[in-house]
Design goal:
The protein is mostly beta strands and 559 residues long. It contains 3 helices and 41 strands. The chain starts with 8 loop residues before the first helix and ends with a strand.
Length: 559
């Protein structure tokens, strides 16, 4: 076609309307475009579809949902392609991503969730009910169901205007008219494959930011998530997904920063920073396994940074936490296992006994404060329960269940202290629920109940102020190996270590950092085969005492 044959603007628009030119090709003007069939050919799957060419205004007021959806549908019909969100603020309700489509939001582009709740609709293919992890709604600002090769990328912004979905007070509907589990997530994926979310700023979701359900091969890279305008403002929420990889992200959330519910497996999370009111790495139910979390910084987290809660049928194993910095947090680690029947189960329903085993914490440096505080950018009070104060590392199993094969290696924690003699003597109720439900633990460093195969190697607990609780309490623990434990004592405290009905334990090379009345107190008639081997215990007035039915045969002290 020579210059004399160049089509007029009207003719180009006519060609677009008949599908002979992808609308995005007009962005640079007709003279720069190339004629192509509507689908197939060498350019199939590689064209760019600018949402402005489909009628999007980008003025922040006009609803551009139909234009964005039309561009996605056009790309899908062309065997895939890139949908471009250029500079501008594009207000939308629910849109659906399709297979083989990339949604690219330019640096000055923003998708703005509508403040009108009627602009959102549920993804009917996503079931609700049944598993507790699927009770949290099925509405997304952007969602995909049974799709593959889906990419949502920046460097632009998705703003959910989540404050519009928070009720000002109980009994009053939120400004958007849509609340509870009907609130939209930023991004919602269900049974998808090959999903990439990268280089985006995701802010102010009405609910969770990125929710991924029963999907395989998921990459989340280079995301900044700021989600603190509503309740249940999670960052990432993965449910029974496999081959999931999170890297180079910064998450500031109101609720769980990175939840892994159900049967997640083959997961890596690395090189990221997290802050939240509740938990950062939150596990619950299912059969999570083969998960590695490393090289992360957790800060300003006033809940429990690592929280794992399992019922009797859970089969959790091979979960590693390595090279983590925890600064200004409460908690810091809680693993709870119960053999109680799950909610709603009847005695006639048989259940297969589960397990929690091979959980490792290595290379942890933490500063744990005694009390949480109000984060300054929260728009509502946080409220703290009494049991959240003066928490420690808790490994807690009840009834007939045992945690198995838990290792803490190269773990150094500085605690706020302030524990009382009353807290040191309290009986911990046989409950395995939220970390705070058991109350303030009777240890300032580690409380381990019904753990089999516990290993502590190069573990150090320091205090910022005196604490009258023991550093470590082992309650009905078995097969315990402790090497190079360094802890602080208190002359007014009963003991530095309490070993309650504990058996087959070796404590070697322990070091007492400050004076104490008693180093180890052995309790209970079931205590046996306990050896304290060497170490620096000269600061203890008495190295070893026996109480509550324990006899001198239960433990021996070797110089």
């Amino acid at each position: 076609m020579d210059s004399g044959d160049a089509p007029t603007r009207r003719k180009w628009l006519s060609l677009v309307s008949t599908g002979l030119v992808a609308p995005g090709l007009l962005a640079a003007g007709p003279a720069a475009a190339t004629l192509s069939p509507p689908s197939g050919g060498e350019a199939a799957g590689a064209r760019t579809f600018n949402i402005r060419d489909f009628g999007a205004k980008g003025d922040g007021k006009t609803l551009d949902t139909k234009a964005v959806q039309a561009a996605i549908d056009a790309a899908s019909g062309d065997r895939g392609g890139t949908v471009l969100v250029p500079a501008g603020v594009f207000a939308i309700g629910t849109v659906e991503m399709k297979s083989n489509v990339t949604l690219h939001i330019a640096a000055q582009g923003k998708l703005l969730g509508s403040a009108d709740g009627s602009q959102y609709h549920a993804a009917g293919a996503i079931p609700l009910g049944g598993d507790a992890t699927l009770r949290d709604g099925n509405v997304g600002l952007i969602f995909a169901v049974h799709a593959e090769n889906v990419t949502i990328e920046g460097p632009g912004t998705i703003d959910g205007q989540g404050a519009e979905f928070r009720a000002p007070r109980r009994g009053v509907p939120p400004p958007s008219g849509r609340g509870g589990s009907r609130r939209p997530y930023h991004l919602l994926f269900y049974r998808c494959r090959n999903v990439r979310v990268r280089d985006l700023f995701l802010r102010d979701s009405a609910y969770h930011s990125v929710r991924v359900i029963e999907s395989d091969f998921v990459w989340c890279d280079g995301l900044r998530i700021y989600n603190r305008v509503n309740g249940n403002n999670d960052g990432f929420h993965f449910i029974s997904s496999r081959y999931v990889h999170v890297a180079n992200c910064d998450v500031q959330s109101q609720d769980d920063a990175c939840a892994l519910f159900g049967s997640c497996e083959f997961v890596t999370i690395t090189n990221s920073t997290f802050s939240t009111r509740w938990a950062v790495f939150r596990f619950g139910g299912g059969n999570p396994q083969n998960i590695a979390i490393s090289n992360c910084v957790i800060y300003d987290t006033f809940g429990c940074p690592i929280k794992m809660q399992f019922g009797p049928e859970a089969r959790a194993q091979n979960i590693l936490f390595a090279n983590l910095v925890l600064e200004d947090v409460t908690g810091p680690i809680s693993i709870d296992l119960t053999d109680r029947a799950p909610f709603g189960a009847t005695p006639s329903q048989p259940s297969e006994k589960g397990f929690v085993r091979n959980i490792m914490f290595h290379g942890i440096r933490a500063r744990v404060v005694a009390h949480g505080r109000q984060l300054p950018d929260f728009p509502f009070p946080q409220h703290f329960r009494p049991g959240e104060t003066r928490q420690c590392i808790v490994l807690n199993s009840v009834q007939d269940a045992f945690l198995e094969g838990v290792t803490l290696s190269d773990v150094h924690v500085t605690y706020g202290g302030g524990g009382t003699a009353e807290e040191a003597r309290r009986e911990v109720p046989p409950i395995a629920g939220e970390y705070f439900e058991m109350g303030t633990p009777p240890a300032y460093g580690l409380y381990a109940r019904k753990v089999r195969g516990l290993t502590l190697d190069n573990v150090r607990f320091n205090l910022e102020r005196p604490d009258l609780r023991p550093a470590v309490v082992l309650d009905r623990a078995a097969d315990v190996a402790v090497g190079n434990l360094s802890v602080e004592g208190n002359p007014q405290a009963d003991a530095v270590l309490r070993l309650i009905d504990t058996r087959d334990a070796l404590i070697a090379g322990a070091r007492l950092l400050t004076p104490a009345a008693v180093f180890a107190r052995v309790e209970g008639a079931s205590s046996e085969e306990i050896t304290i081997d060497g170490g620096a215990l000269s600061k203890a007035g008495t190295p070893l005492v026996f109480e509550a039915g324990a006899t001198e045969k239960a433990a021996k002290l070797r110089a």
